Amino acid sequence: MSKSMRNSRHNSRAESSNSSSSPSNPPRKRVKRCCRNFVTFMCTQVGVGALIVLYAIFGALSFMHIERKYVDENTAYVSELRHNCAEKMWNITEKFNTFDRSEWQNNTLDILQQYQTEIATLIKNGYVGRTPEQIWSFPAALMFCLSVITMIGYGNMVPRTPWGKGFTVIYATFGIPLYILYFLNMGKVLARSFKFLYRSLHECAQERNKYESRLDALENGSLGALQRKKIIVPSTACLWVIISYIITGTIMFANWEKWSFLNSFYFCMTSLCKIGFGDFVPGASLITAADIDAASLKIKEDASADPEDLFNMQLITDQNSKLAINFFYMLIGMGLVSMCYNLMREAVRMKIKEIKEDTKLCLEDTRARFMGCCGTREYYDEDYY
């Protein structure tokens, strides 16, 4: 009896322990299941696209918070240089006046040349004539993050603070693999979509000759080959797609940035090819809000001033919405480049396969002709006569 009671007590304790642990297991399983589903979704095409946009927004906000604390000491130094240059020129003018014109020109040229050299040195060291708040706006920071993770690297915006440089290294370490994943997944999605569209258009165009092709296939006994025929997107179609996209960007950037069509086309090509020289960058105008205020004040005071100049300056500096559109233009353009790469790779594989088959048939025909020429007369007659 004692053993049975002990066994019953042991079983009751085990059941109670299982019942007490069972409520804690379902929440853990739910959390694991949710995490697994989230990771699976993020590895899909839509998830990777959303993730890279969120990652770029996170990087833009972080760089804005870090880099706006940078104090540019060159601004005060440039103001001092400008003041000293004006004072020296005034002293020279007061000294020589108009009696010795050659001496006045030589001395002023030396001062202006020295001023020019010092300003050029400051510009090489990163002076752009704008405050960190003007440089690191949200759209500009978004474009900077895109240039980092896509490995374009325009170079028009660089972090100045030690924290910004360290964060750039960490941001690129995680962002570049994420972009590669986006590049591969988006290329597959766009390739499938474009392939489906091309096949649909091809079938609509060939609908009239469908029955005639079937009759010819039945007469030749190759209906199965006709059904197994695979439609491949030609490389020319891929080139037309990417050229049309580049032309669209050329017109857009030429109107927004006031570039020539050649410079705008040059920028689109170098950006989509991930060269990124940095000589042409959207939103990199040196015109500031102070310049616009001075131009508007001049128009109010001077009636002969041209109001169109102020309008053009406002168009150049109004880059917030335009830079956001530029961000998505470059992001979609990279996906189209990946799509063209996938489709052209498939076309090249089919061409190589056809070349191999043609080469194999050519070698077999050459071998048969060689054997017929070098073999017996009966073999030759039997094969060719």
UniProtKB/TrEMBL annotation:
InterPro entries membership: 2pore_dom_K_chnl, K_chnl_dom
Localization in the cell: Membrane
Any Pfam family matching the protein: Ion_trans_2
Name under which the protein is recorded: TWiK family of potassium channels protein 18
Keyword Transmembrane attributed: yes
Potassium channel domain: residues covered: 133-191, 241-283
Regions annotated as coiled coil: none
Similarity-based family: Belongs to the two pore domain potassium channel (TC 1.A.1.8) family.
Composition-biased stretches (Basic residues): 1-11
Biased composition (Low complexity): 14-23
Signal peptide: none
Residues annotated as transmembrane: 38-58, 135-154, 166-184, 231-254, 261-277, 323-344
Any one GO BP annotation for this protein: stabilization of membrane potential
Chief location category: membrane
Species name: Bactrocera dorsalis (Oriental fruit fly)
SUPFAM superfamilies: Voltage-gated potassium channels (SSF81324)
GO molecular function, one term: potassium ion leak channel activity
Lipid bilayer topology: Multi-pass membrane protein
Region of interest (Disordered), residue spans: 1-30
Keywords per UniProt: Ion channel, Ion transport, Membrane, Transmembrane, Transmembrane helix, Transport
GO cellular component: plasma membrane
